[in-house]
Amino acid sequence: MRLFIALNLPKKERQRIYRAVRPMRDEALPVRWLDLDTFHLTLKFLGEVRREDIPVVEEAMQRVAQSTKPFSAKVGGFGAFPTIRRPRVLWVGVEACPELRCLKQDLEWTLGACGFEAETRAFHPHITLGRARDARAGAFRGLDSLMASLDFEGTMNVRSLELMRSHLSPEGARYSVLSSARLQA
Hints:
This protein is of the alpha+beta class. It contains 5 helices and 9 strands. It has a single domain, classed as Alpha-Beta Complex (Cyclic Phosphodiesterase, Chain: A).
């Protein structure tokens, strides 16, 4: 099973983000926009995990959750990876507050001890809004000013970690929650 650990937003906050991004969706950009039900922040991508190894992941999540207090992070600011001129992913940012960075690092260490490979890329917390299709040169001209004109400020209240399963299809990924671990410290 293709799994990852994520932070999910309440439906009301996902709807607010979706409305804020409407001006971008209304443009003729070569982007496959994600459904608002898929908005989440990935903390750790695990890749293919055998069913019998899921309890190990769940136990690691519980250990991290038990030592972490609930917290909030600001959501806002739009961008693209790798660049705004040739994007592959369009996103809204999540504040890399100390609590979020510590949670990410604790997951990396705990899962590393369970045999999962550590992430080597820098942590840039974000919520993916859309994925760019192959586009001709200049297809994203003006995207930088369009993103700068969008006004959105929100809050992500982090109360639990979710073990998510990704179901890939030609229409895009669908996600389901396998289990949750409530933050408790």
